[in-house]
């Protein structure tokens, strides 16, 4: 069955329901860089063959490698692709190294420069979806951002633009204000069956505002919903999951155990069911599973053709999530501006209640 597609409201931008997040083949998670590059080229080309049209990258992925690798793999098929990239990190300055975040620059001058650099690396005359990468509160409130990107759309450099929240889950105030201020047609967030907030709050906000679609990353909750982890699973030193508390794996596996009803009958794998859960939200335009090998790619690309989650399955999952799967664990911490703070209430309006 052909890959299903969805269209962003109010635009001519149509994307495959499953996209390819290029960061997994460009950000140094593999010890052999040459092998990583060759595998990345193979996976990108296979993704295209399997009907994936949306490829999400960023200028900061491998300091431009993500964009140049995409060009090398699929440049000959440019008109068949929807290229989403991101900008806002200052690549003219050396990176801090390690897990520390690079300095950002969302000034009009730098954004125009960054767009031109991305166009060159991608070997194209337009970017289909340009995303402000990991925007913070000050960026969301800046009046010149939208004007700059709208000018780039008018000039034909961009087809559409939006925001990408992160780098971790929980930027509920920033996401809400980006929607209310009309910052583009797209918002990229973390959302999955085990981490549904603040996604649900942002979906509700977008329904009220209209003209907003979502890209979802981490749809498998950092691998838990792929169904491959056990209590004996360990992670390599460079893997961020290695630094999480043991309870993350133990509790996560107990939650996954309670989702066995999603795979009963064998019509879909757990990994496919996780994507079908994300795609059950009409405002989600596409999901971006982490892809490292051909078996994963084939499994995830086939997910849209598997049966949709039934009303009963969605209700059972909602009931489990409402009680945190019966587990007693600390609530997820806030990222960005605390939505319970006085400042958040001032920005969101008197009496506003937004949960993360």
Describe the structure.
The protein is of the alpha/beta class. The chain has a single domain, classed as TIM Barrel (Alpha-Beta Barrel). The strands form 2 sheets. It has an 8-stranded parallel sheet with strand order 3-4-5-6-7-8-9-10, with helices on one face. A two-stranded antiparallel ribbon has the order 1-2. Strand 7, helix 6 and strand 8 form a beta-alpha-beta unit. The longest helix has 17 residues. The two termini are 37 Å apart. The model has no long low-confidence stretch (mean pLDDT 93).
Summary keywords:
alpha/beta, two-stranded antiparallel ribbon, TIM Barrel, 356 residues, eight-stranded parallel sheet
Give a quick rundown of the structure:
The protein has 356 residues and is of the alpha/beta class.
Task: Record the SSE blueprint.
Layout: E1 5-7, E2 14-16, E3 20-21, H1 33-49, E4 54-56, H2 65-74, E5 82-87, H3 108-122, E6 127-133, H4 137-141, H5 143-154, E7 158-164, H6 172-180, E8 186-190, H7 199-209, E9 213-217, H8 246-257, H9 270-279, E10 284-288, H10 294-301, H11 311-322, H12 342-348
Parallel strand pairs: 3-4, 4-5, 5-6, 6-7, 7-8, 8-9, 9-10
Antiparallel strand pairs: 1-2
Helix pairs in contact: 1-2, 6-7
Structural class: alpha/beta
Give the helix level as a range of percent.
25-40%
CATH superfamily: NADP-dependent oxidoreductase domain
Largest sheet: 8 strands, parallel
Helix count equals 12
Q: Uncertain spans, ≥5 residues at pLDDT below 50?
A: none
Order of helices and strands: EEEHEHEHEHHEHEHEHHEHHH
Total number of domains: 1
Query: What multimeric state do the chains show?
Result: single chain
CATH class: Alpha Beta
CATH topology: TIM Barrel
What's the pLDDT, averaged over the residues?
A: 93
Portion of residues in beta strands equals: 5-15%
Can you tell me the CATH architecture?
Alpha-Beta Barrel
């Amino acid at each position: 069955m052909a890959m299903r597609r969805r269209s962003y409201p109010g635009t001519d931008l149509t994307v495959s329901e499953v996209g390819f997040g290029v960061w997994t083949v460009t950000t140094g998670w593999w010890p052999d860089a040459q092998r990583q590059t060759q595998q990345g080229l193979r996976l990108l080309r296979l993704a295209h063959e399997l009907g994936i049209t949306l490829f999400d990258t960023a200028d900061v992925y491998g300091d431009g490698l993500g964009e140049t690798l995409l060009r090398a793999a699929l440049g000959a098929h440019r008109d068949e692709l929807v290229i989403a990239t991101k900008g806002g990190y200052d690549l003219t300055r050396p990176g801090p190294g390690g897990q520390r975040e690079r300095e950002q620059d969302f000034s009009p001058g730098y954004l125009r420069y960054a767009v031109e650099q991305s166009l060159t690396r991608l070997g194209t005359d337009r970017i289909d979806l340009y995303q402000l990468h990991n925007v913070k509160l000050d960026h969301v409130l800046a009046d010149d951002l939208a004007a700059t990107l709208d000018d780039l759309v008018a000039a034909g450099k961009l087809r559409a633009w939006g925001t990408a929240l992160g780098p971790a889950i929980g930027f509920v105030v920033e996401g809400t204000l980006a929607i209310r201020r009309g910052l583009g047609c797209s918002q990229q967030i973390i959302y999955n069956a085990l981490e549904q907030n603040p996604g649900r709050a942002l979906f509700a906000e977008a329904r009220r505002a209209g003209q907003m679609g979502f890209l979802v990353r981490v749809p498998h909750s950092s691998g838990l919903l792929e169904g491959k982890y056990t209590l004996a699973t360990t992670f390599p030193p460079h893997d961020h999951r290695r630094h999480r508390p043991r309870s993350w794996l133990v509790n996560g596996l107990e939650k996954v155990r309670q989702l066995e009803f999603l795979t009963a009958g064998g019509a879909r794998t757990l990994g496919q069911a996780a994507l079908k859960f994300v795609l059950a939200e009409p405002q989600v335009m596409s999901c971006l599973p982490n892809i490292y090998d051909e078996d994963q790619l084939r499994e995830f690309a086939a997910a849209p053709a598997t049966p949709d989650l039934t009303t009963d399955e969605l209700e059972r999952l909602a009931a489990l999530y409402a009680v945190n799967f019966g587990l007693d664990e600390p609530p997820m911490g806030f990222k960005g501006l605390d939505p319970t703070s006085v400042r958040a209430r001032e920005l969101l309006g008197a009496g506003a209640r937004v949960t993360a």
